[in-house]
Design a protein that fits this description.
Elements (H helix, E strand, L loop, with lengths): L2 H6 L1 H11 L5 H7 L3 H12 L3 H13 L2
Helix pairs in contact: 3-4, 4-5
Length: 65
């Protein structure tokens, strides 16, 4: 799923995102609004992952939708 589709379906997907990555806050979700780069950055910050790991997590998540 590309970034545009992710943005378009963000309201529907935000629950699944929080379920998968529980350390994300509601504020994180509101600001992210489907922006995969921001989401990866927040994952990196909250979980202490490398940039590559966070981007891979977002990519894997979006490919399963």
């Amino acid at each position: 799923m590309d970034s545009d589709v992710l943005k378009g379906k963000w309201k529907q997907l935000s629950g699944k995102v929080k379920e998968r990555w529980g350390k994300l806050t509601d504020d994180d979700m509101d600001v992210a609004e489907g922006h995969s780069e921001y989401l990866a950055g927040k994952l990196q910050e909250r979980y202490g992952w490398t940039k590559e790991k966070a981007q891979e997590e977002v990519k894997n998540f979006s490919s399963k939708l």
